[in-house]
Amino acid sequence: xxxxxxxxxxxxxxxxxxxxxxxxxxxxxxxxxxxxxxxxxxxxxxxxxxxxxxxxxxxxxxxxxxxxxxxxxxxxxxxxxxxxxxxxxxxxxxxxxxxxxxxxxxxxxxxxxxxxxxxxxxxxxxxxxxxxxxxxxxxxxxxxxxxxxxxxxxxxxxxxxxxxxxxxxxxxxxxxxxxxxxxxxxxxxxxxxxxxxxxxxxxxxxxxxxxxxxxxxxxxxxxxxxxxxxxxxxxxxxxxxxxxxxxxxxxxxxxxxxxxxxxxxxxxxxxxxxxxxxxxxxxxxxxxxxxxxxxxxxxxxxxxxxxxxxxxxxxxxxxxxxxxxxxxxxxx
Length: 332
Description:
Layout: E1 12-19, H1 22-32, E2 37-41, E3 50-57, E4 60-66, E5 71-75, E6 81-89, E7 92-96, E8 99-103, E9 107-111, E10 117-121, E11 126-133, H2 134-144, E12 158-160, H3 166-182, H4 190-207, H5 226-237, H6 245-252, H7 256-266, H8 271-289, H9 297-303, H10 309-320, H11 324-329
C-alpha cells in the first residue's frame, strides 16, 4: 500500500490494495471511506479478488474499486459526507432512503449523509467511488445561491453520466484521479491541485439535482458582488493562510470596512468569522475520518490555520457541541 498521512489540507495521498482476503478488503474500505461498513460475499467466494486504488485530496476521496465476485455492502449513515458511485463496467443495485437505483455506465448513484445504504455489487462491476466532505459541498451551494439551503442537502438519487454535465464531471474526476495516482503532473503543484479539487466539488453541485434554484455554482449569486466572490474563492482555496482583515480587503480590492459591510449583507457574517467557520469545518471533517492513534488534534488544528489552541477548542465546542478530541475518539 502506498500513501501516508496528509501534512496539510492541500496535500494528496495515494493508497492501493489487491487481496483475496475479505477481512483485509473490508478493513481497507473502512479506513479509506467509512467505519460502519460491511462487505460480505454472496454465494461462492472463490473468485473474490479485491482491487482498490484510492487517492485523497482535502475534502474529496476518489477510488476505483472492484471485488471480483458478487458481494453485498451495507453502510450506516454517512454523517460527514456525500457520496457518488459511478460504475465503469457492469451494474450496481443500490437502495438508499427508500429508493432503488440501478447504476451502470450511463447513470451514477448519489447518497446523502443520512440514511442506510444497501448495495448488491456483482463481480463484474468496477466503479468510481467519490466521497465529498459534507461541509465542502454544502458551503459550495450556500456560497452560490442567494437563499438558505437545507442541510443535509436535498439531492437527487442519481444523475446521467452520458450527457453533460454528468459526463463532464465524471471525466474531470477520472482525470484528477489518474493525475494524483501518478503524482508527477500538474496535480503535484499544491495550488493547481487545490483548484482542481474545488472544480470537482463545484462541478458536483452543478451536476446533481437539487431544489435550490437554477443559478450555477462558482459564486454566481446575483446579489453577491464580485468583491465578496473573490474573497470567498481565496479563503476556500487556502483556508490555512494567516489572512488578516487587511489581506482579505486587498484581495477584494476594497477597504476593510467596505468588505466587512458587504460580507454582513451578503454572507451574514464578517470575513474572518466566515474564515473561522471554514477552518472549523475542515478540522471537523479531518478528525471525523482519521485514526485516533495516528492523528494529533493540535497538529490538525495548526494545519488548518489555528494558532491559539484554547480559542480553537472553545469555538469548536460551540459549533459541534463536543471537544475536538471527542470527535476523534468517537469517530465511526
